[in-house]
Amino acid sequence: MIKIEEDLTLAKNDKIVIGCSTGPDSMALLDMLLKLRDKYQLSLIVAHVNHNIRKESSIEEAFLKEYCEENNLLFESMTIEEYGDDNFHNEARNIRYNFFEMLVLKYEANYLMTAHHGDDLMETILMRLVRGSNLNGYSGFREIVDMGNYKIIRPLIRYTKDELLEYDKENNVKYFIDSSNSKDKYTRNRYRKYIVPFLKEEEKNVHLKFLKFSNNLHSAYKFIEKERDKAIKRVCEEGHILIDKLLLEDEFIQKEIIYYMLNEFYQDDLILVNDKHIELIFNLIKNKKANSYVNLPNQVVASKIYNVLELKRDTFEITSYEIEMSSSVLLPNNRTIERINDTSDNSNNTCRLNSKEVSLPLIVRSRKLGDKMKVKGLNGTKKVKDIFIDKKIALDKRDIWPIVVDSKGEVVWIPGIKKSKFDKKRNESYDIVLKYD
Q: Does residue 31 sit in the same domain as residue 151?
């Protein structure tokens, strides 16, 4: 017999957003919460996502809307108009949870509840074991997740699909069956149809064994997180990983640090990343090339730039520009070059010029093939490319790094890196002072 009240700590006037698909699981959860509504004076908000991939979707949405009207429930829905991700389930999940969180904030809800049950947990754990993950991934999803200002609760995690179907039958709960759940082309469906039934035959309460396994891994991972966080302080600088320091750590902690950094791009389940991707990153780290990279799912790129490992989304960037120097120039790298009255700074972030020795106007542009500069204190010229290499400037930064030239194309300054012979000392004659900030 299912009694979620015993597993919940509901209080008077709690507000709950319920993720509801019209399937047997979510309709069972909705019915259970309806039976508790008056006792706790609950505010229930039903959140429905129309995935828009089956013709029945609009019928199911209309049914749920009418159901909510009849039961005096707030109803919120959204339709996914298009998908841009190769992994349908992952993208749909992200859209759902973003929508749910928006509603939680809108209604200032205490809880977001979903109808994930014991079979779902088994499927998730098995999929992660086969695909490859870390301890956090292998543990599947949690029963309760503290999001700070609200909690995600999965109150059906101790029950099986069969138990929920029996509940629906006993309580005359109407539901719809998603026809796509029977298609073998989806990985989860294959586990659902062939693996989980076999395990249940071996042990009817196997879902509780998986729940215990999950909780044990979560407990172990809490300890590992503390050690990982200490290591991150030792190996990370400004959001990047210092490779030489990373390699001093225990191999297990090295991988946990990588997973932690990847979490920024793939969220809490890292469903798109497996052991092969982690192996690719470590092969990159050990590569003898100074600059190299590997592509990861969803346009994420792991780049090795000398001693730095950087993870970023591969988005379009300006790689060619030319701007006439005025009082101030905002650059594509979000920095500025400003003309100032004077400064005592003598670093490469400042340049002093005599307008009689250069051809005005000055131009700030991206580098060009064959660029050379007459370096201050050096007889002859040096290729800008070689200057970048000497300073170990990453390949992706070289293309947008500002080069200051005069109207004849003479390179007079590489801001932040090197000065040309045209730069003046403070005791020399100059009437132009530029600052790179």
A: yes
